[in-house]
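Supplementary Note 3. Input sequence used for the single-chain structure prediction.
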Amino acid sequence: MFYNIEDETVSLRIKAQPNASKNEFCEVYGNDAIKIRIKAPAVEGAANKELVKFLAKSFKVSKSDILFKTGQNSKIKIVAFPLNDKFIEWIKLNHSNVI
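The predicted structure, written as discrete structure tokens, is reproduced below.
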């Protein structure tokens, strides 16, 4: 599964694709990551910054609440942020088959 909820914190395993035409969630990549396309290039942390901004806006959390657990220099990343109703709603709407 591409996400884990523990102690009111979500850990999200992401397959990042930089240099996309727009920021967007895509399909589940394999069984253990969610593919996210990011507009910014993978240069000097620009894609990571854009990813944090996109996740913060998508799940209504502060950018400072999104932490990289692994993969800052990799296409496969694990980020953590506080669990909230917006994330639960997103899972139910988009990924009810994986709950």
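The chain has a mean pLDDT of 93. The helical segments are 46-59, 85-94.
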